[in-house]
Amino acid sequence: MFLGTYAPKLDEKGRIILPAKFWDELSQGVVVTRGQERCLYLYSARQFETVLEKVSQGPVTSKETRDYQRALLSGASQEIPDSQHRVTIPAILRDYAGLGRELTVIGAGNRAEIWDTEAWNSYYSDAETAYANRSEEVIPGLF
After folding, report:
1. Domain spanning 5-132 has what CATH number?
2. What does pTM read for this prediction?
3. Which residues pair with 109 in a beta bridge?
4. φ and ψ at 80, to 5 degrees?
5. What SS3 state is found at 32?
6. Are 49 and 141 in contact (CB under 8 A)?
7. How large is the C-alpha radius of gyration of the chain?
8. What does the H/E/C string look like for 64-130?
9. Cβ pair 21, 114 in contact under 8 A
10. Is the dihedral of CA 81, 85, 90, 94 positive or negative?
11. Between the CA atoms of 61, 64, 68 and 69, what dihedral angle is there, to the nearest 10 degrees?
12. 9-27 residue pLDDT tens
């Protein structure tokens, strides 16, 4: 399970050091791919298999399904963390997410998300206000 907020840096080779609390979950390999709101999703290899299975069940006759599958999978990159717990973020994904040196990595339950820190701060300031003022149920049965 991925929880919390972390502030790693992107090095000159396009690598980040994974947050220490994620090491056990990600030590066998990760998949980095495009996420919504121009962030990157980081899954354990095991969890990505579950995601891939669900994505593959979409009807191939649906253009929305094909578009989603293409966007998610065409940028996906399998990586094995090195001995210093670093993974390389491919250039195509760094460009997609607009990543600079300053990053914010957040835990999002079954995945981590990698954001450019400025983009995260902008997104979160709007999302936090909406979250604090939410008066309707968003996730059925949660509260």
Report:
1. 3.40.1550.20
2. 0.91
3. 2
4. -115, 120
5. strand
6. no
7. 16
8. HHHHHHHHHHHCCEEECCCCCCEEECCHHHHHHHCCCCEEEEEECECCEEEEEHHHHHHHHHHHHHH
9. no
10. positive
11. 0
12. 999 999 999 999 999 999 9
Give the number of residues written for the chain.
143
Q: Provide the pLDDT for residue 66.
A: 95
Check: CB of residue 33 under 8 Å from CB of residue 106: no
Do residues 90 and 34 make contact, with C-beta atoms less than 8 angstroms apart?
no
The candidate with the shortest Cα–Cα distance to 92, out of 73, 105, 66, is 73
Q: Which pLDDT band holds residue 41 (cuts at 50, 70, 90)?
A: very high
Ranges of each domain in the chain: 5-132
Please name the helix (run of DSSP H) or strand (run of DSSP E) that holds residue 30, with its range, or none: strand 30-34
Cα–Cα distance for residue pair 67/77, rounded to 1 Å: 18
DSSP category for residue 22: G
Around 27, how many Cα atoms within 13 Å sit in the side-chain half-sphere?
7
The two tokens of residue 46 are: 């095991």
Crossing angle (nearest 10°) for helices 45-56 and 63-74: 160
